Amino acid sequence: QVQLVESGGGLVQPGGSLRLSCATSGFTLGSLAIAWFRQAPGKEREGVSWISTSSGNTLYADSVKGRFTISGDSAKNTVYLQMNNLNPEDTAVYYCATSRTPPLLLKERWAQRGQYDYWGQGTQVTVSS
User: Fold this and answer.
1) What share of the chain is helix, strand, coil (3-state, %, to 5)?
2) CB atoms within 10 A of CB 3
3) Continuous H helices in 16-97
4) 88-127 pLDDT, tens digit each
5) Inter-residue contact 24 to 77 (CB < 8 Å)
6) CA separation for the pair 43, 89 (Å, rounded)
């Protein structure tokens, strides 16, 4: 049974940092890609970042490039999202997700919500002074 559990959210001041974790189970981390999405109140869920731990390929939304870093630890079956220089526009519920589609085929459509079959429950990130 595939399960994804996010943690690490919280309240942070503008310019601060947080590291989100996505603990996975029910599959081998290297066999599937993991994506982070976020959803702010009244907005669509948007893709933030993506990783294929088997290839090392990573992708980012333009809005977070240079500030966020995605990484994976296969030994711990966990994917991380290091978020630096946060601003109020980053406030959202952050979700990790995975897809049964092989990473090589998923890569070109990584930010499309409908491509993902399994989701975590989400973790709230609030950036405010």
Assistant:
1) 10, 45, 40
2) 12
3) none
4) 999 999 999 999 999 999 999 999 999 999 999 999 999 9
5) yes
6) 12
